[in-house]
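We close this part of the discussion by returning to an individual protein. In the encoding step, the backbone of a single protein was reduced to a row of integers, each denoting a local shape. The sequence in question and its structure tokens are set out directly beneath this paragraph.
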Amino acid sequence: MLSRVGPFGRNLAAYGLSEAAAKASRLLVVASVARSMDAQAIGVAAAALAAADVLKALTENGVGQRIIAARPEALEATCATAHRIFWAWCLGLFALQCGVAGLIWALGGGWLFPLMLVILAAEYLFMPGGLVQIALAMREDKLRQTAAIAAGQVVGANLFSAVLALIWAGPLALILPRLLAAPIWLLAARRLRPWRPSRAALRAPLAPFLRFGAAVLGVEVVKALRMQADKLVVGALMGPEVLGLYFMAFNAGLGLANSFSAAFSIVLYPHLCAAPDREAALRRAVVLGLALIAPAVIAQALLAPYYVPLLFGAQWEGLAGVVSILCLAAIPGVLWSAAAQWLRSADRPQVEFAVTLATTLALIANTVVMAPHGLVGIAAGYLAVATLAQLAGAWPALSVAFAPRRAAEKGRTPKVGNMESGGMEGGCGPQPA
């Protein structure tokens, strides 16, 4: 079957399996902590992970995508500049997160929560040594290998968390494995695509990185807020115990279902960059993505009443309805992910940022408004708001891709910008042969 769907389908299958393995292993963690930790302890760890993930979104600054889209003659200069940006950026994020931890401790927030933030911040020290290599591998269509590396890192960390939670039932059991898995990722990335910065290489100008990266960074930060802000609001309004329950339901529902749309986004951007007709490529990708993803998501939602008590224990059976509702939010997420990558490949991340920001604000408002109605109300509102906002945001791109006139215009693509020595200025360059 994979031989019939082409390189995009094979890459999507690889990243889909990678994300599914990662989220399935996260279910083992959730099942372990459900049997060994109380909801309040889970809530403390969930708050630390949510805060760290919001800051970690700052690593998604568009620099790697500049490498993927660079012209062959500008590739080495682009990589040289990107390498310097990665080191400066990651060291800055490490200092920022440690500073936040120190401020919380100084304000009387205790020692455990700041310690967890510092441990999670140490992951930034391993990232810059492998980010250029990963971008080069994705540029060279080694997405199945990068998928395996990503899955290996996350699955290893989750398995260690599951074991640690059973023998040492505390919030740190969910935190430490994230740091311990970082060196494994670094070694694998450097092995997959060896690259070293050359002192003789020219440096690409910073301006194209800044123009493209500013909007991409805004998108990723707001996207992280969208995924984490509801947890922080639930914790603030309803307490750590309810947050622990919501964390469990979110990971068992939307966390697993969202893994498919995350895989879709990762694979689609390089595919659109290499496509001579982006709209036709978008149309085929959406059809294939929905055909693969929608049945799995619907099956997961229908089976939630059976696997929730089986995995987590009978005392968590009441969360099955929340899990089922959250699962379904992944389907409109796939459509918006496709439209967002099309916008990014056309050098229009500002539009993606505006839609993502509006969706995030609407979801935060939903959590505040629906909190008095309990977790089922929050989940139902999340599904309704996410569906309406994401379909509205995706409509302009999808209407172009699926318009009947596209069949007669196949091969015609709009000119979206000019190329500069730093790689792409206003669009995706060709993939290397």
Q: What stands out?
A: Confidence is low (pLDDT under 50) at residues 406-433.
